Amino acid sequence: MIPVTLTRPFARRLAPLVLVASSLFAVVVPLAHHLDARSRAVLAAHERGERVARVLAEAVRDRPLLWRYDAAKLSGRLQQEGLLGDPLVVRDRENRPVTLGGPATMSAAWARVPVLVQDVPVATVWAGAPLGPLWQETLRLLAGCLLLATALGGLLFLFPVRTVARAEERIAALLAERRVALQDEERRRIARELHDGAGQALTAARLQLLALRKRGLAPDDAAQVEHHLDEALEEVRRSTSALIPAPLAALGFLGAVRKHCASYSRATGVDISLDAPEELPELPAPMAAGLYRIVQEALHNTVRHAGAARASVRVSHLRGALSLEFDDDGRGFPDQASSQSIRERVAGMGGAVDWPEPGRSHLRVRIPLGGAAA
Amino acid sequence: MRRTLALLLLSAACAGDPPPPPPSTASTVLAPRPELLAAGTGALTPLAMALAHEVSSGTGLRVRVEPSIGSGGGIAATRDGAIDLGLVSRPLRPEEAAGLERVDVARDAVVLAAASDFPLDDVSTSDVHRLYRGELRGLTLLLRDEAESANAALESTLPGLADERRTSAASGRFRVLDHDDAMALALATTPRAIGVFSLGAIRPPLRALRLDGVAPTTDAVARGTWRAVRTLGVVFRPERRDRVAPFLALAGSERGRVLIRSLGYLPVEPRR
Fold it and tell me: Which architecture characterizes domain A7-151 according to CATH?
């Protein structure tokens, strides 16, 4: 499996976002609830303070001098009206406390209401909304929101991460498949290279040896066989390393083709003529190798299948395309199935092949040069 | 983000008004006013006003009696120096008695009072219990607050009545009045109403009902046949004894005793 690293970086980037979002949810909801509840409690306390202030104002009107000493009676009345359940602080004009009972002063949100008699302030009421229960409620909500945020955060984190993890596995599987396909293609390409390169050289050497057996061994002939075998060895070496035909690397495309035509002609006795321009645009190495192999394969077919005495090769460059044309005086080109490698090479370079009609020998290959045609 | 959070916290902290400041801790006794000031239980208010009128006429000392603030209020105001005489209708608790002197002035009959439209002149003990339990249809019971000493005086003679009163008060079906003047007004204006009251404070259109055939009078109190009785007195700071002396002298004098009896109270026996 090819290692594909998507999940971990994605999780690293997602985690802080989820943490921030979850934390905001966990904190903002209880805080907003607390503020809302607190403001409502203060409003209720203010309303209670106003009711207490009305009772006190009435007491002050009835007993202007000594109303604060009537606290026991006032307390009873406030108790009766349900106004003493929460913290309540009353101070007279001199800030002296008026004890009316009710719970001891505790942590509270306060509402301050003046006691007015004929628009003159005579006392002040502080009605408190106890904060203890409010905080308890807020803390309970906070705990709930923390749990919920943790759960939601987990889902927000785990679902995308799991999806990415599955995608990562799928991508890794696809890459592995692709690698296998590429390896297979490469193996096939190497096989073609060996067949078209070393295979041709060895075939020539074999033909040479057959001829020698018939004629008797001559020093020049032995040298030629040696030369073909050396070339085959070099070809194998090239195929297993850079997979570039040796002459191509040394002479360039046109030079390699000229050399191959000459040496192949000598080896086979077939008269091979080459018509090529002096120069061609610089070809990409894979394209040059592919074209060179096509030349080798086509001449090999001419010699092996057509039984020709003459053959011609024409290389031309016209309107952004390179054209290779082969012709001979033999029995005609073998069927297309026997030229599988030519078909594959041409297709790989995006070109087209004009196959000869049955019994005819003219083969034409046209390859678009693209960027190389410039 | 940080700014929003700060605003939220600030608004949370600022919801509502500032808490009450620390109270004034000044414990100085208030200076006396030019006039003699008396206040406290409403049961003694009519008598105190009558005595005040006599004192003012005889000595030229202006005496003012404030509306009822209850015995506890009278004691507290006297201790603070806000008034000179506190009118009380119950014994002082130990924490109240410190620093005050008490002089008893009269004995007061606690009665069941009603307005003239009340259909009965005489109620039985059984009727009273049924009334307090809310079982007498067509009559309206008016209650006094828990701290009122008249409750204790009446309930001391009618066992079980205290619990029935508390149950009725807690039920919310009965009006509870905080002061004698409020009770007087409620009795006078509520149809077929009845409530506990001070005999000395009764003024038309209110009248006192007989209980088990016994009429509440000063003679009945003196004879002991009317047992719902409380002792009324005044409290004062010792350093103001001279200021209140004319009032106390009149209350203890023969003229004062006549005045007390004429108002429906029973004078206390002079100390020997």
Answer: 2-Layer Sandwich (3.30)
Asked if B150 and B205 sit in the same domain, the reply is yes
Look at B66 and A38 and tell me if their CB atoms are within 8 Å: no
Q: Show the domain range for B235.
A: 36-108+230-267
The segments of chain B whose pLDDT lies below 50 read 272
CA–CA distance, A114 with A122 (Å, rounded to integer): 8
Take residue A252 and report the two structure tokens written for it: 């360039």
Protein fold of A253-374: Heat Shock Protein 90 (3.30.565)
Q: What is the pLDDT of residue A373?
A: 39
Q: Are both B171 and B262 inside the same structural domain? A: no
> A106 or A268: whose pLDDT is higher?
A268
Rounded CA gap, B106 and B266, in Å? 5
Cβ-nearest to A94 among B17, B18, B24: B24
Check CB contact of B23 with chain A, cutoff 8 Å. Answer: yes
B145 interfacial to chain A (CB closer than 8 Å) = yes
The answer to whether B15 contacts chain A (CB < 8 Å) is: yes
Confidence of residue A372 (pLDDT cuts 50, 70, 90): very low
Q: pLDDT class for A334, splitting at 50, 70, 90? A: low
Which stretches of chain B are DSSP H helices?
A: 2-14, 45-59, 70-80, 94-97, 125-132, 149-155, 161-171, 180-189, 218-223, 241-252, 254-262
Residues B61 and B119 in one domain: no
What Rg value do the Cα atoms of chain A yield, rounded? 50
In a domain, B10, yes or no: no
How far apart, in whole angstroms, are the C-alpha atoms of residue B60 and residue B48? 16
Measured between alpha carbons, how far is A56 from A341 in angstroms, rounded to an integer? Answer: 111
What ipTM does this complex have?
Answer: 0.80
Residues B202 and B114 in one domain: yes
B154 and B98 housed in the same domain: no
Q: How far apart are the first and last CA of chain A?
A: 42
In angstroms, the Cα distances linking A335 to A44, A195, A290, A306, A361 are: 102, 18, 21, 11, 11
Say whether both B163 and B239 belong to one domain: no
Query: What is the spatial distance between Cα B246 and Cα A129, in angstroms, rounded to a whole number?
Result: 51
More confident residue, A335 or A50: A50
Same domain, B117 and B212: yes
Query: Could you tell me the pTM of the whole model?
Result: 0.59
- Residues B252 and B213 placed together within one structural domain of the fold: no
Residue A129: is it exposed, middle or buried by C-beta count within 10 angstroms (0-12/13-18/19+)?
buried
Average confidence score pLDDT of chain B: 88
CA-to-CA distance for B171 and B162, rounded, in angstroms?
A: 14
The partner residues of B108 in beta bridges, in order of sequence, read B230
- Do B70 and A109 make contact, defined as CB atoms within 8 angstroms? no
